[in-house]
Amino acid sequence: TPFTSITIKNSRFTDVQPGDQKAYIYETDNFVPTLDNNVVAFATAESLRGFAECVNTTNGASFLNYTIELAADIDLNNELWTPIGGTGAGIGQFRGTFDGKNHTIKNLKVVNNSVNINNSATGLFGWINTITIKNLKIDGANITGHQYTGVIAGYMESIPTCVIENCHVNNAVV
Predict the structure, then answer these.
(1) For the residues of the chain, what is the DSSP string, one character each?
(2) Is 156 exposed, middle or buried (0-12, 13-18, 19+ CB in 10 A)?
(3) pLDDT tens for each residue of the chain, 174 residues long
(4) Which sign does the torsion angle of CA 18, 19, 20, 21 carry?
């Protein structure tokens, strides 16, 4: 007998990749389960890149009220990074909470040479809207952009619903 409802709560999912529906935590063709107090955590550069790609290829709505955490320090090894939330307003945006849990992202490298104002948000996060980024450290960043350029985020669309708190950046060139 197929089930008609499910609740997933108080759970932690570490280094998972999204399912074919570009969603974390659940995957169903029939309904969206109730999600309550769940956390998705990343401990590797590969899984964090997978998350960024997932956000950038969806409309971002599936991440509303998600909590994403870092589970360890992550070294991006100066490999070219595509900002989480894309570089412009029309691209998928993460709209949840990103909690670094006082971990450090090392060796972040972002290059965006676009002169188009709608595609120029450059940073770990690109174009952010209705988001909280907290308890994050970045050490060693090289960020190149035309405009809307920063280390944590390039562009904050909706103040006061964008919150960046207890974030620290060391050894950065912007």
Answers:
(1) ---S--EEES-EEES----TTS-SS---SS-PPEEES-EEEE-SHHHHHHHHHHHHTS-SGGGTT-EEEE-S-EE-TT-B-PPBT-SSTTS----SEEEEEEEEEEEEEEEE----GGG--BSSEEEE-SEEEEEEEEEEEEEEESSSB-SSEEEE-STTTEEEES-EEEEEE-
(2) buried
(3) 556 667 777 777 777 766 554 555 555 555 555 666 778 899 999 999 988 988 887 655 557 778 899 999 999 999 999 999 877 766 677 888 999 999 999 999 999 988 777 788 899 999 888 889 999 999 999 999 988 999 999 988 877 888 999 999 999 999
(4) negative
